[in-house]
């Protein structure tokens, strides 16, 4: 565990060193995420204001004011989303471009013996496919995680203001929901990494076999290569099947836990609603 944690810390430090030259863009993206999260949480209040002051009072002035406030939130959300998406995607592409240049500058200076022990096709795959995956993590997954974290924190604060009892239930339920999700998520992540390695092995074997096709045919080695390639492909398929199975369990678990927690919250909220209020609601109808 300590070795994994140390490895993660080294990876985070390396990523931070590449992001550091673009700190102003990162701060702008973070500010845009905070603004969009705040506006998203405020849209419900804007709709409530539009219904209460606009439709219920039947006042044209209040209706225009509430609709204007709602449109202001909409424009702010659109502008903030544009800034967030552009800046985060730009940072992801820029970091990957810098990383590729630095890795290539290092590879071009290595001793030829390094390339005798390491296949050039696998190095090429690491330099292209793996860095593209890193770009999707920095440019998409990381921003989505931060935005959702801000939304959760803001939602809990608003819920605490509205109903402290329900908030306490949410705070207790969150670890129970997140713990199994993290467990399955770690399995999916490990299997995704293994699946990527298997696919890289398939590509490397194809490149080596076809690159030395004259030697393969000269020694009549086609049957052995077919068998070995079939075994490599089946290994990649089996790893992908395990990854798909774990991901399916993860999706199922998320649906059951999240909707189950919502059902419990609705039950608690319904039980708190006084019976007298139910009777009044029925009489008003």
UniProtKB/TrEMBL annotation:
Residue span(s) of domain ABC transmembrane type-1: 27-270
Which keywords does UniProt give here?
ATP-binding, Membrane, Nucleotide-binding, Transmembrane, Transmembrane helix
- Kindly report the protein's main subcellular placement as a broad class: membrane
The compartments listed are: Cell membrane
The record's section on CDD domains has:
ABC_6TM_bac_exporter_ABCB8_10_like
- Pfam families for this protein: ABC_membrane (PF00664)
UniProt xrefs under SUPFAM superfamilies: ABC transporter transmembrane region
- Membrane-crossing residues? 26-47, 67-92, 144-161, 167-185, 249-268
- Which is one Gene Ontology cellular component term of this protein? plasma membrane
Q: Which GO terms describe its molecular function?
A: ABC-type oligopeptide transporter activity; ATP binding
Tell me what topology the record assigns in the membrane.
Multi-pass membrane protein
Domain of life, source organism:
Bacteria
* Record-given protein name: ABC transporter ATP-binding/permease
Native source organism of the sequence: Pseudomonas syringae pv. coryli
């Amino acid at each position: 565990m300590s070795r994994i944690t140390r490895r993660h810390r080294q990876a985070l430090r390396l990523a931070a060193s590449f992001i550091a030259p673009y700190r102003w863009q990162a701060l702008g993206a973070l500010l845009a995420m905070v603004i969009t999260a705040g506006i998203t949480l405020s849209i419900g209040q804007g709709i409530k204001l539009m219904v209460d002051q606009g439709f219920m009072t039947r006042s044209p002035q209040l209706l225009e004011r509430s609709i204007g406030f709602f449109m202001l939130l909409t424009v702010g959300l659109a502008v903030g989303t544009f800034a967030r998406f552009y800046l985060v995607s730009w940072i992801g592409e820029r970091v990957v471009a810098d990383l590729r240049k630095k890795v290539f500058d290092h590879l071009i200076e290595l001793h030829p013996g390094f390339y005798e022990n390491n296949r050039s096709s696998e190095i090429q795959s690491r330099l292209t496919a793996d860095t593209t995956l890193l770009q999707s993590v920095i440019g998409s997954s990381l921003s989505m995680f931060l935005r959702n974290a801000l939304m959760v924190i803001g939602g809990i604060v608003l819920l605490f203001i509205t109903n402290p009892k329900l908030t306490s239930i949410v705070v207790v339920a969150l670890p129970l929901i997140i713990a199994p999700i993290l467990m399955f998520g770690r399995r999916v992540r490990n299997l995704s990494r293994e699946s990527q390695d298997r696919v890289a092995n398939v590509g490397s074997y194809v490149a080596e076999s076809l690159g030395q096709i004259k030697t393969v045919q000269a020694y009549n080695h086609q049957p052995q290569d077919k068998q070995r390639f079939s075994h490599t492909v089946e290994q990649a398929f089996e790893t992908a099947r395990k990854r798909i199975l774990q991901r399916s369990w993860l999706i199922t678990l998320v649906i059951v836990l999240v909707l189950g927690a919502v059902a419990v919250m609705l039950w608690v909220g319904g039980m708190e609603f006084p019976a007298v209020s139910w009777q009044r609601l029925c009489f008003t109808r």
